Amino acid sequence: xxxxxxxxxxxxxxxxxxxxxxxxxxxxxxxxxxxxxxxxxxxxxxxxxxxxxxxxxxxxxxxxxxxxxxxxxxxxxxxxxxxxxxxxxxxxxxxxxxxxxxxxxxxxxxxxxxxxxxxxxxxxxxxxxxxxxxxxxxxxxxxxxxxxxxxxxxxxxxxxxxxxxxxxxxxxxxxxxxxxxxxxxxxxxxxxxxxxxxxxxxxxxxxxxxxxxxxxxxxxxxxxxxxxxxxxxxxxxxxxxxxxxxxxxxxxxxxxxxxxxxxxxxxxxxxxxxxxxxx
Length: 279
Description:
The chain has 279 residues and is of the alpha/beta class. The chain is 57% helix and 12% strand. It has helices spanning 6-12, 43-62, 74-86, 104-123, 131-148, 170-179, 207-278; strands spanning 16-19, 31-35, 38-41, 67-70, 91-92, 160-164, 183-187, 198-201. The protein has a five-stranded parallel β-sheet with strand order 5-4-6-7-8, sandwiched between helices. It is flat and about 95 Å long.
């Protein structure tokens, strides 16, 4: 499993928290010290928490379930989009549409609307529209693509959420908590970790810090996906061998039965011959 280490975290600035006056007391167990008015995160605890989160996410990916990545802050958007796409997972980087989890059927209708517009373009219906209608449909498609394009493949509720900055994404966290969906999150010293199932104490404002954490968890998820693929290949191979083994068994049984019949016949012939000789 690809897990980050202390030196990587230190180099990426994962240990830098917020100003002391902005801290959340609930984060006290994860704070190492205070320097120049800034809280320093205990990286040894961060390493341990990253390992726990990575192990859990690996199992989720291995089981074929989806993890929804959420990060709408500017410095996290690009990194989250790249890392989530690398493990074929859905993500939200523009705006969290309220009710995305608690009102999931409505969100799916909006996604289906995109598919309907695409179908119109392919079957020629779009060409029959007026210029004004074409413009309206095109704008609507672009808007839907920007907001929901990255979750087009999410046909059911995700099995987990990975959040960068729980304060900014508090609505997403609240919806997940309401539905009992596990939440993995990078939690800074100014945030409340009480509603997070897998807390990763880390600087959630620096791109390098976000990237090094995502490298670790996405690397673990990739391993889970590869193991799932390998198991699937082995299962298919085993299923393919089953008919061959069954055929061999039938042939062997048939040959054995024939041999037993021949032996029985020979025994009867010998017995009859001896009887005739005695007479």
